[in-house]
Specification:
The protein has about 375 residues and is of the alpha/beta class. It contains 15 helices and 16 strands. The protein has two domains: about 260 residues, TIM Barrel, CATH 3.20.20; about 90 residues, no CATH class. About 40% of the residues lie in helices and about 20% in strands. The strands form four sheets. The chain has an eight-stranded parallel barrel, surrounded by five helices. Strands 1-2-3 form a three-stranded antiparallel beta sheet. A three-stranded antiparallel beta sheet has the order 7-8-9. α9 links the parallel β12 and β13. It is globular, with a radius of gyration of 21 Å.
Length: about 375
């Protein structure tokens, strides 16, 4: 790869931004949603199908891939793009969040985290340097710095201590990152729900200098109101000329609210996980296809949707396949959910370009309030 990683800001509407992240593996139009391919696969989807939904970038998981099949093995097989047959950009997280969730299986030190695999109990050591090495072996275009995801709730003292550790790890990640044309390293802002700590984190990250910046430590149990309170100031503490990524978010209304507050990139397991549990994310809100009221319903899941699921299959059929635990039910609902998310992002981009975001957001919420009314 020789083309450089670049971000171009095209339009704004209030705090909301429309732009392009340019990479050697293709452009990413923002606001953008990244489907999650935890173990080198978006569950229940072929890579070609994921691309057909409009997705321009996937997220891979450092923790899971380092354990199975192993970063060195992936590298020997040509890298993650070739391994999973995805030629567009891939962002990999640092592994920090997953390791931090292993409360009973890990030990945190200044050096990093020593933990036992949830798969076989084998012992591993993950440091900023090792995280950078793993992500290089995987060949991800966007690499995340190694950090500690501050748990919620946290006291101000706990949040500051956690943030300061993450900033020291951020510097070590920057030092260990092998600068190569076309590859990018993102820093992660921490600070829990404390404005002054997040501002300090943002300033320290900018001193280190990254290609993009993430807002971390949200969607960890604080609730939407608190998350939006933090997003009212956190994105504006980050550089205006670099992409801003909100990690692990989220529900459609979370995304809309975060875009209004200046976020450019998102990832979440919700569309695919919902697809495997019988839930459709639609313009009318979430719909549970397991409910008996759908068993005789000939309508598509969402009459406004152009995905193959809605164009070719009825709610009655989806209900039947889900109740019978047929794989096709998960496949169709996952395809629909990912398509819906990409259509939502496209609508947000168009509204920002046309300076009509307030109209778009009002219509978005109104339709969800009206809800999914069954036929008489």
């Amino acid at each position: 790869m020789t083309k450089r990683f670049e971000f171009e800001l095209l339009n704004t509407d209030g705090q909301a931004r429309r732009g392009i992240v340019k990479t050697p593996r293709g452009d990413i139009h923002t606001p953008a949603f990244m489907p999650v391919g935890t173990a080198a696969t978006v569950k229940a989807m072929m890579p070609e199908s994921v691309a057909a939904t409009g997705a321009e970038i996937l997220l891979g998981n450092t923790y899971h891939l380092m354990l199975r099949p192993g970063a060195e093995r992936v590298a020997n097989l040509g890298g993650l793009h070739k391994f999973m047959n995805w030629d567009k950009p891939i962002l990999t997280d640092s592994g920090g969040y997953q390791v931090m969730s292993l409360t009973d299986l890990r030990k945190l030190t200044e050096e990093g985290v020593r933990f036992r695999s949830h798969i076989d109990g084998s012992e591993h050591n993950l440091t900023p340097e090792r995280s950078m090495e793993i992500q290089k072996l995987l060949g991800s275009v966007i690499v995340m710095s190694f950090d500690e995801c501050t748990p919620y709730p946290a006291t101000q003292e706990q949040a500051r201590k956690s943030m300061e550790l993450s900033m020291r790890w951020a510097q070590r990640s920057r030092d260990a990152f092998d600068d190569r044309p076309g590859y990018a390293l993102f820093g992660i802002q921490q600070g829990s729900t404390f404005m002054d700590i997040r501002e300090e984190s943002a300033n320290l990250l900018q001193d280190i200098e990254f290609d993009g910046y993430a807002v971390g430590g949200l969607a960890v149990g604080e609730g939407q109101e608190m998350m939006f309170d933090v997003l009212d100031y956190a994105p504006q503490q980050l550089p205006n000329d670099k992409p801003r990524y909100l990690m692990g978010v989220g529900k459609p209304d979370d995304i809309v609210g975060a875009v209004e507050r200046g976020i450019d990139m998102f990832d979440c397991v919700l569309p695919s996980r919902s697809g495997r549990t019988g839930q459709g994310q639609t313009s009318m809100g979430a719909i549970n296809l397991r409910n008996a009221r759908h068993k005789d319903d000939p309508r598509p899941l969402d009459e406004c949707c152009s995905c193959p699921c809605c164009q070719k299959y009825s709610r009655a059929y989806l209900h039947h396949t889900i109740k019978c635990n047929e794989i096709i039910g998960s496949m169709l609902l996952t395809w629909h959910n990912l398509h819906y998310y990409q259509e939502l992002m496209s609508g947000l981009r168009k509204a920002i370009k046309q300076q009509t975001l307030d109209v778009f957001v009002k219509a978005f919420h109104m339709k969800r309030v009206e809800g999914d009314i069954p036929p008489i």
